[in-house]
Amino acid sequence: MDIRFVTAGGGDVVAVMATEGGELLGAGKTLDTAASGRIAKAMKAGRFTGGAGQVVDVLAPEGVDYARVLVIGLGKPEAADGLAVERWAGHAVKRVLTSGAEKLVLMPDALPGVSKAEAGSHAAMGARLAAYRFDTYRTKLKPEQSPTLTAVEISMDGTAAAKARAEVDAAVVEGVFFARDLVSEPPNVLYPQSFAERLRDLETIGVEVEVLEPPALEKLGMGALLGVAQGSAHPARLVAMRWNGAASKKAKPVALVGKGVTFDSGGISIKPGAGMDEMKGDMGGAAAVAGAMKAVALRKAKANVVGIVALVENMPGAKAQRPGDIVHTMSGQTIEVLNTDAEGRLILADAVWYVQDKYEPSAIIDLATLTGAVIVALGHENAGLFANDEDLANALIAAGQTEGEPVWRLPLSAAYDKLIDSPNADMKNIAGKPVAGSIVGAQFVKRFIKDGTPWAHLDIAGTAWKPGPYEDPISPAWATGYGVRLLNRVIASRFEE
Ligand code: BES
Ligand code: MN
Ligand code: ZN
């Protein structure tokens, strides 16, 4: 889909803004005057109150060139932010994507907290994000199911600033789409080796990509990562992606680490059958890291960033690890595996150690669909945040707010850490009792973070994908791409020159 900024023009459909109380904003008012008040009349007849996402669909009003006018609510004007504009544009695109219309014109207005230029760029961002589809395997789409929209024009005066912002945002959208695609792919297509191959493609945009295979992983001593992979016919991969955008190549990078379990059956501690298909998305952390690398490379971020993804399939094959096995990690610490379904922390243990050992990063942010417990605690609205560093935690909280990918901080402490002490090894991979599951998972990863390294862990089990009723116009698919915008923003605000 083509996005253009124009100062005047026409199309099949036009969308204008209205706020709570049913007030049309500037562009809508002008249109309503041309239509001799017919748009306002339709709003009244439709009991339109201007609530966020409310739509009045006016067909063929006299006096205007458009066949269809969409009045879309933003909610309270003082509360409307850039994300509200994105959702406004997203609603418009969702309405017309398969409607037969080819060209949509968006007419954003400035709001109390959003400048005209910001409104324009957010409208472009929302339109792009809302047009996402994962149709790769749908061979029999009916005409009415197929997108017809080919162009969106953002009509406003003074397009230059909005256009410049939108160009940077387009890079971020590419990253979000990359992550959504990876999470959506079925597990017979996306497994460690094929995932690694897709990451190789990032070389074309200037990312250095290194793929480590089992012999190298064995040599490094990654017994925890290899233990998870050993029950699968698909061997493990660890992929390191580097973007060196800082003035000095030697400046310490920020490290992003992602859990990439391409399918989590639970292993010998097998999961129940219902809903097990969703475990194809258990690589959402790795997808977020891959998407963030794509975004920073495309927008040529002035920062050194290293992205590490640990890729395995957790299966109950004849060679699978058993509950009771004890594995040696790269760090030298041993782990008693009491539940093979607590596999994410095992692969992260070796991945975060590797990144510290090899790159001495200035900070580490890991992302993982780690625990069902985080969904119990926070639902699908917030990711769980754990951190040993206040500044890093606060930067993530702020970035989550602006990007619509919120995080909620949960505690760490020595008392929780004790729960994973084992009499048979240095630690066990689950607590003795089912308490504070997300915190215990975070404490486990923390045992592999060296003292003095700022670290944050994001448990994204509830946000990497979402069940149906949580429809959001700027996140139209099951896979959200959660984490890409958040990481990109944190890199821009805290790690960029
Ligand atoms: N991948 C799952 C966590 C998960 C659950 C992600 C639901 C998304 C939706 C993880 O590997 C897992 O199985 N965790 C266990 C840990 C337990 C055995 C300590 C869990 O949450 O039940
Ligand atoms: Mn599991
Ligand atoms: Zn898992």
Describe the overall structure.
It is a single chain. This protein has two domains: 2-155, Leucine Aminopeptidase, subunit E, domain 1; 172-495, Aminopeptidase. With 497 residues, it is of the alpha/beta class. The strands form three sheets. The protein has an eight-stranded mixed beta sheet with strand order 8-9-11-10-14-18-15-16, sandwiched between helices. Strand 15 (383-387), helix 12 and strand 16 form a beta-alpha-beta unit. It has 15 helices and 18 strands. The longest helix has 26 residues, at 159-184. The protein binds ligand BES, manganese (II) ion and zinc ion (ZN).
- First CA to last CA: what distance? 33 Å
Number of helices: 15
- Counted beta strands: 18
Main β-sheet description: 8 strands, mixed
Summing up helix and strand content along with how strands pair, one would put the structural category as alpha/beta
Biggest sheet: strand arrangement? 8-9-11-10-14-18-15-16
**CATH superfamily membership of the largest domain, which one?**
Zn peptidases
What is the strand content? 15-25%
The mean pLDDT is: 97
For the record, the CATH architecture of the largest domain stands as: 3-Layer(aba) Sandwich
CATH class of the largest domain: Alpha Beta
Reported by name, the CATH topology of the largest domain is Aminopeptidase
Proportion of residues in helical segments: 25-40%
**In the residues, how many domains can be counted?**
2
Q: What small molecules does the structure contain?
A: ligand BES, manganese (II) ion, zinc ion
